[in-house]
Amino acid sequence: MEKFSTHTGIGVPLRQSNVDTDQIIPAVYLKRITRTGFEDALFSSWRKNPEFILNQEPFNAGSVLVAGADFGTGSSREHAVWALKDYGFKAVLSSRFADIFRGNSGKQGLVAAEVAQDDIELIWKVLENAPGTQVTVDLESKLVTAGTVVAPFQIDDYTRWRLLEGLDDIGLTLRNEPDITAFEATRPSFKPTTLPAKS
Amino acid sequence: MTEATTPDAQGSAQVPAVSATAPRRAAKTLAEKVWRDHVVKQGEGDGDAAQPDLLYIDLHLIHEVTSPQAFEGLRLAGRPLRRPDLTIATEDHNTPTLDIDKPIADLTSRTQIQTLRNNCKEFGVRLHSLGDAEQGIVHVVGPQLGLTQPGMTVVCGDSHTSTHGAVGALAFGIGTSEVEHVMATQTLPLKPFRTMAINVEGTLRPGVSSKDIILAIIAKIGTGGGQGYVLEYRGSAIRALSMDARMTICNMSIEAGARAGMIAPDETTFKFLKDRPHAPQGADWDNAVEYWKSLATEDDAEFDAEVSLDANTLEPFVTWGTNPGQGVSLNDAVPSPEDFGDENAKAAAERALAYMDLEAGTPMKDIRVDTVFLGSCTNSRIEDLRAAADIIRGREKDPNIRMMVVPGSARVRLEAEAEGLDQVFLDFGAEWRFAGCSMCLGMNPDQLEPGERCASTSNRNFEGRQGKGGRTHLVSPVVAAATAVRGTLSSPSDLEPAGTVAARAGATSASNVA
């Protein structure tokens, strides 16, 4: 996972609450066998509507999604995070995230920044009045900046630390590699292995 | 008995709140001991602020549907699969049960299967492919090979991994990111689960089986009742069950919301494992048994919650609704939404009755079904097939019933054929298929038509689970068989005496059907 300290990119105002993962990526795309290449699947139903925000310039080149409350509810599909990342989003701002979506985001390096709803409203106005405004998400200071608006955001300490360090769970676990190797050395001889195959 | 922590019968309203982390204490229950023996590194801190423990995984089971992105993740990060020798794969979810020697017709399915084959070859993972004698449902194959043993930690990207708890393993389903995590590190960072004792005392009556025990438990504690807990099934009724029957119970722990279910290893377990291909040999066997015996829950152990069920009075159980907790005794009638005090449960019942096209007050035994499905990781083992065959032998199938029999593994299929069970099913007019998950989830062509009603030995009666618009009643293998004879939901006791070989009925299946 790449380190994340700060990101600046075009903000996309998504004035909608309860954006569930079925909307983020419909089930039909879960048949795919890859973890990448889901950019076309992101919000695919909504994107059929020419009025949808991601069909308008310059928002189609956005990388910071500013959404309503309760973002990422519903199905646990990690594909929702993959689709957002594949499209180019680095961070999502919302006043409230569904737990599973937040967990999946942390595993995949997408910053789910919890911003007070009043501040979300202010940022929406900035982005709508001046389309293409750059939004900065600074994980060090836990501040988000959009034009003249500077607002704090919440993210749990453990996830923030992992993102700043650029460590996914696997990278973190591998820091304990000597412990794993030592544990493996104590494995009783009666425990089975799958190789070589016996029948 | 701590009745205050016993969840309510109809849903999750009174289920005790579970904090994120279980309290740290000396390991005295089966689940705690297995956890203790796999901690690579204990997380710092206590309570909700605690960091997760790093837990070693003894066995990783893989199938075609939840693994492709995990393999790709390894490839993108340039990481090896750490322990191919603790990993095994099989093809089950998306495989056909007919014409298995021909290319899979559905291109998406074929690609998914081929991807598993390519990945296993690239990363050195042992794979049992379609056509192989050890191919089958991942949760049937593991125990059958003797790879899942007491005291082990077992994971798989499938929620029914809880099945393996029947041998006394701590076994649970994981997501795709965790699948990759285990591939790369053979560990998982986890916070400890809480423990719940499920005490089942007494003796099952004829025609009542372990499926009825677990359906009754789920109806009692609700589909969220086990959330945050590892369930340990205990008591004389559990001890009397065979391994196949125990697997049926542990399998459906997830339907009660629990991540895992376990049964302490005993002589039944040891006898089941002895001489299986991957069971310990010689001195290793003796050492293993000594260790396995030490894992049993101690007499003074405390559980975070306890629930009891009386086996003596249990009747065959069947679901009427669209979640596994919506079940009643087969002798009862379809309940009315008005029977439910909780507004949410009432609304759920109304919706379920509409979907199932049932009227409140209809006796369950008056409900006519179209299809009988005998299979799935819940009930597709040799004893399940024997129990069903014993019911139908010498009897005639209702002419309007379609019955599909799908053995859990190629090995089970071979074993059944050696005993002549295939002929019993074929003579009866049932379809005898190749092994796989099949109609349990309808990912392959084995699906219900819209509106079709099915008595199914599987585990989930969700809307559309077995096919868009399909209606599922969860039942035991003997109820499925009796239903195929009468055409309506039936227990074996409803049947007229069979022809010449009726005396055999029940004789060979005593271990699974009391």
Automatic annotation (TrEMBL), chain A:
MF-aspect GO terms: 3-isopropylmalate dehydratase activity
GO CC list: 3-isopropylmalate dehydratase complex
GO biological process: L-leucine biosynthetic process
Similarity-based family: Belongs to the LeuD family. LeuD type 1 subfamily.
Aconitase A/isopropylmalate dehydratase small subunit swivel domain residues: 1-116
Function field: Catalyzes the isomerization between 2-isopropylmalate and 3-isopropylmalate, via the formation of 2-isopropylmaleate.
EC number(s) on file: 4.2.1.33
Pfam families in the cross-refs: Aconitase_C
Pathway: Amino-acid biosynthesis; L-leucine biosynthesis; L-leucine from 3-methyl-2-oxobutanoate: step 2/4
Subunit structure: Heterodimer of LeuC and LeuD.
Catalytic activity: (2R,3S)-3-isopropylmalate = (2S)-2-isopropylmalate
Full protein name: 3-isopropylmalate dehydratase small subunit
NCBIfam families: leuD, PRK01641.1
